[in-house]
Amino acid sequence: MKKNILVAGATGHLGSMICKALTGQGANVIALVRKESDAGKIESLAKAGATVVGVDFNKNVEIAKACEGIDCVVSALAGLAEVIIDTQSALLDGAISAGVKRFIPSDFCTDYQPLTPGENRNFDLRRTFKGYIDEKDIQATSIFNGAFADILKYNTPILNLKNRSIAYWGDKADWKLDFTTMENTAAFTAAVALEDESPRDLHIASFQISPNMMKESIKVITEQDFNLQKLSDLDEFSANIKKQRLENPSGEQELYAKWQQAQYIYSMFTTQHPLLDNHHHNEIVWTSADEYLRSFLKQVE
Question: Which residues pair with 51 in a beta bridge?
C-alpha cells in the first residue's frame, strides 16, 4: 500500500525537491501550502504529481483536516520564530489531532544540540521547537545534513572564487566540514518519511572536506593554487559576530542577516558529525566532494 506523506513548505526549494523525491519513490504526496502561495509554484507541484492543499496555518481545524490519513508529516518550513516555532507548532498540533504517527521537523542544518545556546539564532529557534515536539506523543526524526553544498558557490569566506581563497579559523585547517547537496538531502528525507519508524536523529553528509583538502581538490580540478588563510582565532571570530549583531538590530528580522551567516560558519567550525547515517539508505548515490566541486569550478579562469 502506498504511503501518504504530507510536505509543508512545499513551495520552497527543498520542499519541492522532497515532494518530487517522494512521488518518484511511489508515495502519495500532499503538498501543504498557504492559500496565498504563488500559482506558478503550485502548478509545478501538481505537475510533479503532488496533491496541493491550501490552508490557513492559523486554523488548526484546516491543518488537521489536511493531515487526515497521513502516515508522516515532513516540515520543510523556513523562517524566523513565527514560522519555525509558531507555524511549525500549529502544524504539529494539527498532525497530532489527525492521528499522524510520524513527524520530520525542519532541522535541515548542522546538529545544533552540542552547540551552546545563543551562538546561532536560527538554531536556537529549532532547539525551542525540539523541546516542544519531544513532549508530544508522536515519533519525531530530525535529519541533520550539515550545510547545504550550494554555499560553496556563493563566495563565502570558506570558498571565495573571486579572491581564489579558502579560509579557516583557529587551528581548523584540517577540520572536516559536513556538506550535503539539496538533491541528496531530499532523497534521504523522502526515504526516511516512507519508513514505518526511524531513529530520533539522523546525520548525513554527501561529503566531508577540510580547508586543506579543498585546496588540494581545487588545485587538481583547476590547476590553480587557491590561497589558504587563517582569518582569526575562533574566540575572536565569536566576539566579532556578537559585536556585529549588537550593531545591526534590524538583522533580527532577517532570515540570513550578515551576522547570522557568520554564525552558521562559526557552527561549522565548532561541531561536526562524528558518525554518518548515510548507510541508512544505501540506495542513494551520494555526491562526492570532487564531483560537486567540478560541477561549478570548470569555468574558473
Answer: 30
